[in-house]
Amino acid sequence: MAKRIDVSGLNAYYGSFLAIEDISMTIEPRSVTAFIGPSGCGKSTFLRTLNRMHEVTPGGRVDGKVMLDDENLYGAGIDPVAVRREVGMVFQRPNPFPTMSVYDNVAAGLRLNGKYRKSQLDDVVEKSLRGANLWNEVKDRLNKPGSGLSGGQQQRLCIARAIAVEPNVLLMDEPCSALDPISTLAIEDLIGELKERFTIVIVTHNMQQAARVSDRTAFFNLAAVGKPGKLIEIDDTERIFSNPSVQATEDYISGRFG
Amino acid sequence: MDITTQKPAAPPAPGPAAPPDAPAARGVTRPGDRIFLGLSRGSGIFVLVLMAAIAAFLTYRATLAISKDEANFFTSFEWNPSGVPPEFGIAVLAFGTVVSSIIAMVIAVPVAVAIALFITHYAPRRLGGPIGYVIDLLAAVPSIVYGLWGALVLVPHLDGLYGWLDDYLGWTGILEWNDGAPRSLFTVGILLAVMILPIITNVSREVFRQVPRMHEEAALALGATRWEVIRMSVLPFGRSGVISASMLGLGRALGETMAVAMVLSPSFTINASLLDPGGGTFAQNIASKFNEATEMGRDALIASGLVLFVITLLVNGAARLIIARRKEYSGANA
Amino acid sequence: MSHATLHSRPASSLRGATLPKWFSWAVAGASAALGYGISAAAGLHSDIQWALIAALLFVGGSFAVSAKVEGRRQARDRTATSLVWVAFLLAVIPLASLTWETVERGIKVLDGYFLTHSMGVVADTEPGGGIYHALLGTLEQVGLATLISVPVGVLTAIYLVEYGRGRLAKAVTFFVDVMTGIPSIVAGLFVLSLWILILGMGYSGFAGSMALSILMIPVVVRSTEEMLKLVPNELREASLALGVPKWRTILKVVLPTSVGGITTGVMLAIARITGETAPVLLLVWGTNFINANPFQDPQASLPMYIYLQYTNGSEAAYDRAWAAALTLIAFIMILNLVARGIARWKAPQTGR
């Protein structure tokens, strides 16, 4: 299921403002890649270009190539709606549909794509909730509103919702920044399990988290406020955290930064 | 226009942490504080007294009239309060008011929701703002102007529509047209729809605009089309707001006076067909009959006004209940 | 995955077949032509008919083609889009017509003479005359209503936000809500029954003002409440901590902070009651002559004037009605625009 992402020469704009410039990288299937860097360096923007969510922002546009295996996401005739089916996303703040129950939240993506028998849906919902390590906590309250869960549970519900449609890639935009340490740990464990099945990209502000969960780490930086963000380097996480090849990366990781 | 008060999702504003009913509890009171509290509390009490007075005096005059009424006030088709013996009833008015308001709602609510969606989700961004602004201003156009337009512009243009409805739907009986002037309850319904369209659109637009971006992105990230995003995130979030907007519009339609009085050719009958001229509404009847009414006639009109008052209270109360019941799913807590 | 069978994906699932941009225009053109053709062939005459047939063909046609090429979900999305556009265009027609007709017909007799003369010596069926008496009446009635409503409304709002916690405050909140929904004619009937039928007072501009203030008070309370709630608590506490008494804190800190918003709310409330006709009809009675005293004898008012000219029914009277309507709308729009201007200019720094 998991696919390789190959980005080359990617620029992203907000209106006329160039937010990230000339990014090229390869993201291996069945691995966790972490994006780190100071605020405003464009790592979230870059993440959102990987499932064409960036262009949803008013004024957002992109040029360059993002290959998902052998298909360019920005090629002619590509349907962004279909792209987002293949590349799932989990957001910074948990955002279950407030008007839907736990069950309906997980089934939402499947229901968009056609009719399923109740038993099929039941199967997928259970499997996805188990996959998100949430089944035991919510199996008795599947018909209660999803917004009634705790923050950490809501975030895992969102992960369940994203993996229910079996995407190839799972993007996570600071998925733990709104959570307490215990919930964070639960999600980090979950990421470790999910990488067996999905290509995972995670944006994080938490250096330890990047070190704990990821196989590869990419460091983004910007020259100054108002300048576009750039990819400084991407390498094995171990190497980035022990012996990065660029001085700026070392400064940032060791906290000697701005 | 107090759109803001209709926001269903407005979080309870963090009121200042004032001690309950002020410094009196402390023992030390400054004259300034006492006077100021007295004035502001007095104004609050004045509002209560005013409401009580409205209910009391209307009821008082209404009972004066109803006690002399020889016909059944609720079911009689007569309106002859100055006759000997006086006979009057509100059946025709209740029918006309309800029917014209229903027609207005059936037309206005879907169109208003669509326009609100158009402004927030479909129109090019440069257009959405100005359109919303213009509709905002249209909500302020007084009903007398809508009445003038309805009577002098809309009515002469309705022959075609009436003929067409008669040709294809005349067999239903309720849309049969016998070539009268198109000054019927149906026309009133259309005009009321045009009048309440801006207000429902405005409030709905406000609500749709408040749908948290993250809910829409959640749907988008699952691979939803624009319409599916609206169905999954926007409409469920906005539902209670749209209901309260519609109720606001309904309240206006029920109580609308001048526009109805100018467009309808009233009569104290209930016609089988909505396209035939005739019928009446509470408010229109008061305005049309007031000039020539005797004191007894005025009291009878006040009695009918009291019924209208009660109906609008019920509608507003229902709106509030619906909103309160939907709170659990309103999304305001997310 | 065991349920991978649920999604039988084509080799390249990203490349959804998409209809070209001109597709909608092409279908629209084709349906219009076809609708017109069918109407002509069947001998239908009404514009509504062929437009309706064309609209149905457009929605149905684009759904069918799109469902075939792009799939049902895209087709449904397309249908929703076209319905939203249709609704918008449908609503534009009456609202644009209203604006256009008022301006076009109203501008005919609207001039300096019209604004500065009354109807006193003009027969209703003759051209000439003006709205001076009505303008005067409206300004006085609305002015009086504002004088009553603003103190009551603002003080009530202050009570609710700054003091009110108990049962009284809850009751006031509830009944202000109820008051918002009172139909204007009912407000008129109330003043009629109390002031004229029971107390035996005559018809006057002031009687109308009382009814208008019943309509205005709740609007003022609501908007003022909203504005006071926007004032951050830190400001109040800062002032109280300096030893300033509460009432001076409210007068010197809270109200000045929110004065822009309150003014906006009051002006919008004025704009709302200026156009009210029904209570004026019941309580002020109307006249063709200038009566500068709002406390005695019937007065005229702009909305009332429009109604009287309309019921008169002659062409000259219709012209005057449209001109008065244009004046009234212009007045209300100016109030609205100024109010919004103030709101923007004095926007609370704490904006939500």
TrEMBL record, chain A:
GO terms for cellular component: membrane. GO terms for biological process: phosphate ion transmembrane transport. Pfam families: ABC_tran. Residues 5-247 form the ABC transporter domain. CDD domains: ABC_PstB_phosphate_transporter. It comes from Streptomyces gancidicus BKS 13-15. GO terms for molecular function: ATP binding; ATP hydrolysis activity; phosphate transmembrane transporter activity. SMART domains: AAA. This is Phosphate transporter ATP-binding protein. It comes from the Bacteria. Keywords: ATP-binding, Nucleotide-binding, Translocase, Transport. NCBIfam families: 3a0107s01c2 (TIGR00972). InterPro entries: AAA+_ATPase, ABC_transporter-like_ATP-bd, ABC_transporter-like_CS, P-loop_NTPase, PstB-like. Coiled coil: none annotated.
TrEMBL record, chain B:
Residues 94-319 form the ABC transmembrane type-1 domain. It is found in: Cell membrane. InterPro entries: MetI-like, MetI-like_sf, Phosphate_PstC, Phosphate_Transport_Permease. The chain crosses the membrane at residues 44-68, 88-119, 131-155, 185-204, 241-264, 300-323. The keyword Transmembrane helix applies. CDD domains: TM_PBP2. The keyword Membrane applies. Keywords: Cell membrane, Membrane, Phosphate transport, Transmembrane, Transmembrane helix, Transport. PROSITE patterns: ABC_TM1. Residues 1-26 are annotated as: Disordered. It comes from the Bacteria. It is a multi-pass membrane protein. Residues 9-22 have a biased composition (Pro residues). Pfam families: BPD_transp_1 (PF00528). Part of the binding-protein-dependent transport system for phosphate; probably responsible for the translocation of the substrate across the membrane. Belongs to the binding-protein-dependent transport system permease family. CysTW subfamily. NCBIfam families: phosphate_pstC (TIGR02138). PANTHER family: PHOSPHATE TRANSPORT SYSTEM PERMEASE PROTEIN PST, PHOSPHATE TRANSPORT SYSTEM PERMEASE PROTEIN PSTC. This is Phosphate transport system permease protein. It comes from Streptomyces werraensis.
